[in-house]
Amino acid sequence: MVELLQNIIDGLGRGGIYALLALGIAVVFGIMHLLNFAHGELITIPGYLTFWAFNNGFNWWTVVPLIIISAVITSLVIERIAFSRVRGATDFTLLLTSFGIHFIVSALFLVYVSASVQSIPRPSWFADTIAVGQLNLEVFDLLVIGVTIVVLAGTTWLLQRTMFGLALRAAADDFDTARLMGINSDSVIRGAFALSGFLAGVAGIFWLMRAGSVTPSAGLNPMISGVLAALIGGLGSLKGAVLGGLALGMAEVLIRSWLPGGISQLTDGFVFVLIALLFIFRPGGLLSVPSVERV
Fold first, then answer.
1. pTM of the full structure
2. Which of 62, 140, 144, 204 is the most buried (most CB within 10 A)?
């Protein structure tokens, strides 16, 4: 029982990061029907800024706001430079555009910075634990869980209690009708990308702390995890994105703990088998939503 509780806490810590990534992807998908494979660049670019900041005397107290602000700006710049120019294009064109952004950003860092792994110092408390009875809880996991709860609560308030949230939800339900009612489509789309960038920035803080390094392809794994979590929960459902992220994190931790030591490296393979089975029996994910028209 103690080991199970320990794994649940670890899974919630990992799943909280996935939930934030998936929610950012779901917000943009709900507005533009765009599965944004460039979402990982909202961690890659802040990651290199973090590396630069530490080399210039910054610490984590000053780096944290830098990561969030740079992720929001990066998201808005990507929308302005790339997605705003193909807004009326086909789904395939939008998909290729998002892939193109990923490869361009990776290539720029590869050519003009370095292909080498750039180390980022972890906080001094990263490996600390708190004993609660027989449980040894990692401070990092507890912080992730706490921040995730606060951010998700704040996002829920934003979407439910503000005019921006009302406009965002109306546009996600029926963009054409929302536009006829006076909602500015450009403002809503940019607001969605800004919110997506903020959520990615918060997730990026913990992702970079855990990784302790950055490379030109650093955003690939978080992007894949976020997309998978959004698909598991039900693409287009904000609640589903959160549920999918938590489910993915829990599955990874529990499967790794249950597998014998000799085959624990196959955790990702077993997770993908479970995801495949989910999509066979529930193609729309855990919380499927009605199909919507893309704008």
1. 0.91
2. 204
Q: Distance of alpha carbon 154 from its chain centroid, rounded?
A: 16
Residue 46 CA to residue 117 CA, distance in Å, equals 15
pLDDT tens-digit map of 52-87 = 999 998 999 999 999 999 999 999 999 999 998 887
**DSSP class of 117:** P
Both tokens of residue 109? 């860092």
Tell which CATH classification among 1.10.10, 2.60.40, 3.10.180, 1.10.3470 matches the domain 2-111+134-281: 1.10.3470
Domain boundaries, the chain: 2-111+134-281
Query: Which residue type occupies 159?
Result: L
Please count the residues of the chain: 295
What is the amino acid identity at position 172? A
Span 99-139, pLDDT tens digits: 999 999 999 999 998 889 999 999 989 888 888 877 888 99
Q: Are the C-beta atoms of residues 7 and 253 closer than 8 Å to each other?
A: yes
Burial 87-98 (b: 16+ CB within 10 A, else e): eeeeeeebeebb
Q: What is the pLDDT of residue 293?
A: 43
How many other CB atoms are found less than 10 A from the CB of residue 10? Answer: 21
- Residue with token string 């899974």: 11
Q: How many CA atoms lie within 13 A of 193 on its CB side?
A: 24
